[in-house]
Amino acid sequence: MRGFFRPLLGRVARRRWIHLILGGALVMPYVLVGAVIVGPVSGSSDVFTSLPLQLASFAVGLPLAAITSLFPLTRPMSVAAVRALCGVDAGSLADGPARSRAAKGRTAAWFTLHLGLGGIVSGMSLSVPPFGAVLIALPVFAGLRDTRLGLPEVLGRPWGLALAPVAGAATLLALAGCAAGCGALLARWAPALLGPGLEDRLAAAEARAADLAVRNRLARELHDSVGHALSAVTLQASAARRLLDTDPEFVREALAAIEDTTRRTVGELDAVLGVLRDGDAPGTAPAPTLAADLDGLLRRTRADGPPITAEVDTDPWALPPVVSREAYRIVQEGLSNALKHAGGQVPVTVRIEAVDGHLEITVENPLGQGPSAAAARPGGGHGLRGVADRARLLGGAAHAGEADGAWRLWVRLPLKGPV
């Protein structure tokens, strides 16, 4: 028995019934406007008491509803109501206003269908329950058999009285079935009429791509700034531990370098994390650039032990800001790789030059000294991929590998164009 009534009066059916009644409430202003039009046209003043004129007002009001559904808020409001009341998968519905003509047409069709079925079911919900209740109570209460109530004469006969409760119950079940059927119809058509079109899918894909680009950029910034700082601090602390008793002056310099490195890294980390916190403004620490901090980067890295030869054949202050910023991170990653994989005493050469409208960056160190790349920490290699990503986003190119008995990182960035 429960399985019979669940499709008619279960939780999903009741919520869909409420959704239909909401459509009936929304259609009422349009019906009133329709009555204002139908009354003078028909020449009758009984618009609100004549069923044919009421149906005519309803028919006139629905096209008006279709026109007003072109407002941008119609689809978001309809989608919210469907998600809350119709039991439709939220992922099958579109978000935001309709953008294209086709999407607006589907929204108008949905709005008209919802208000049309809602108006019918709402009218039935107001009139059928009292009528069914009267039929059910008719054999018990003689006063209900008054002919002035407009009941059929057959109900005054004995067999008619006996069948009246059955007819009343059947009427109520028919109402529930009609509401359940209309609710199921709306739920079935909702994904087709309110679902995402091609434009919505493209907009969602662009939003996901933009979000992924931001996430990847934050990951690169964290890897390059924090990874370089940890590599440098590890080497400085290791050297200071070895020379603690024999060279106190070197230990003091190493500790000062550690302090400077960590202070700068904390500022950069705060700037990156500020973007991740909802409602927080980004950190105030400026992004490092070649113009602002190349000398400091080289000085801090030399404090870790390796001799670094730097050849800068361009004016860093003349570089576009975005190129200067990305180039700084690329040089930083190249030095970090040299420290991690070649050892702390291997000479490193850094060359930065402008060639044919491009900025070329080369970071090179000899092979065969210090720990090999195979001994690198597990999960390594993200830095070189980050360098390639930075170069590609600016329209440049990057290559890393063995060349002439050395490990070489070579990057070429355009000074104009995508930047």
From TrEMBL:
It comes from Streptomyces spiralis. Residues 325-416 form the Histidine kinase/HSP90-like ATPase domain. One of its GO terms (cellular component) is membrane. InterPro entries: HATPase_C_sf, HATPase_dom, Sensor_HK_TwoCompSys, Sig_transdc_His_kin_sub3_dim/P. It catalyses: ATP + protein L-histidine = ADP + protein N-phospho-L-histidine. The chain crosses the membrane at residues 20-41, 53-73, 109-142, 162-187. Residues 215-279 form the Signal transduction histidine kinase subgroup 3 dimerisation and phosphoacceptor domain. This is histidine kinase.
